[in-house]
Please model this.
Amino acid sequence: MTNALPKRSQHMERAVRLRRSLMNHLVTGLAILSTVIVLVPLVAILVYLVYKGASSLNFAFFTKIPAPVGETGGGMANSIVGSGIILAIASVMGIPLGIAAGVYLAEYGRGGLLGNMIRFTADVLNGVPSIVMGIAAYGLIVVHYKFSALAGGAALAIMMVPTIARTTEEMLATVPHPLREAALGLGIPKWRTIMSVSLRTATPGIITGCMLAFARVAGETAPLLFTAFGNNFWSFKLTQPMAALPLQIYVYALSPYDEWHRLAWAGALVLIVLIMVSVTLVRLYANRGTIKGGH
Amino acid sequence: MTQPDRVTLPTPILEPAGKAPQQEPEAIPVPSEPSEIRRFLRARSSGRAADGTFGGLMLMAALSIFVIVALILWVLIHNSQLSIHAFGWKFFRTSDWDPVSGSFGALPFIYGTLVSSFLALLIAVPLSLCVSIFVLDICPPILRGPISFLTELLAAIPSVVYGLWALVVLVPIVRDNAGPLLTKWLGWTGLFAEPNFGVGMFTAGIVLAIMIFPIISSISRDVMKAVPIHQREAALALGATRWEMLRIGVLRNARIGIVGAVILGLGRALGETIAVTMVIGNHPDIAKNLFNPAYTLASVIANEFTEATGDLYVSALIEIGLALFLVTVVVNAIARILVWAVTRGASTRTA
Model:
């Protein structure tokens, strides 16, 4: 049989082998190349941000409010504080609601139709554009009252709920069942089991999920455009328009003045650093807490 | 929660041979006072009532997600009544956007949203699939962590910072370097014609591509990881090269999930607001030329809502928001179903 095969088939075989190996190398090369292509803008953005932002930062940035057009100097102190207040409002509203919804999904609604529907709705809500949340908060709150920090916080809170609910659920799902069974077996009521065993065990993961949601909304501009509205002066009243860092960056970036562009870069750097620092601090603190609780 | 005074131990089924079967089982007295542990637990919880209340609270929190969606829908429909009655379906078919004369048509925004998102997918999908393959199968394990970390970092950068970077760095590049080259080489297609201001559909597409890359690559990576290892091993055992193994063993099995990841990316791109508003040029035009300034559904809301005068203008903008909401809900629902179909099957297979 083997002798009967014509000589050309060996040729063809070699050609096929060559083609396959070439294709393999081609795809490998393509994969490496595209990774490089993707990493270039990323690194470019980060380097440019640090370079531009750091060179524009000064003490006044953290202590002064925005200067009037034409004057140099000024800072974003009110925006930093405003962002903090709006995010605090959002967290107070969004985090408990999100965690509670996650607890329901993990501990009560697993596998049931209602649970699946809620899970699905949360996932879909997660993908709704932030600008739509802004309009919804405008229609619900601003139309009846006025532009306010509270409305901004509510818009951000709505965005936090589905993310936190889903991560809480996932984290609770990793808690081993025997732990719950042991607690229930001791005669501890279910709610107490959830609070002291399930949630307690999953705390680091849940906090990480909350911080991810926090980091996501902390940089949001669109929902604040028609809710918190922005403010060029100090304001601590929750029912008044309030400045926020992303809003101020947006306004300054679109302005024609170099001085304001400079401030926008500084603001962007401060925003990212603040987000990362707060996330890291909370995570460190949470981890420390659980290690202590574990012993 | 009543306690019996005495507990009767169950009679053993197999009676010992010598004993009379009628003999009464021994009764053990139960201490009438609950034990220390029980008292502690009782003091901390009031039993059934607390359990019910807690469960109810959790259920209410979970149902609030439905309430949120319903409220958003209601608010958007309620506030756009004026525009819905004035224009009907014509709103989405006409391209006249003239606040002064009070005629509103959303077609240019729909066009801008679709084209910019499509452009972003065209750039981001092949790149993110290649990166997923690279990270999963090709790259040395030392690089795996840093690359994943960097792509996650990319997802954490706020939209406004992307916009700022694009405005300052990308726009001049498109205007002065890349644009003229593209016009020279591909000008004949009519897609890359002068005048090129730097801001426009093309730049918006690039920024969107960078922004949706992390979500597509991370989900497609998860989906590819969910393919059972046997598939890879079987392909390799048949003598497949790495690419053939990926094609036959991985990509073919994960294709539904990858489509889901791509649609999720599409959902992001459709709704992305701030970065696009900053670089797309904000001009309601329908033009074949990708260098032309354009407008998207989300960016027209962001740009004009606070300046909108007149009820009809505001209501038209809210109707655009309603359209955006419905479209993204449908797109996300489809994507979620596809991703679930794949990753769920995987989890039951490994279990």
In short: Chain A has a mean pLDDT of 85. The domain at 63-294 of chain A is CATH 1.10.3720.10 (MetI-like fold). The radius of gyration of chain A is 27 Å. The first helix of chain A runs from residue 7 to 56.
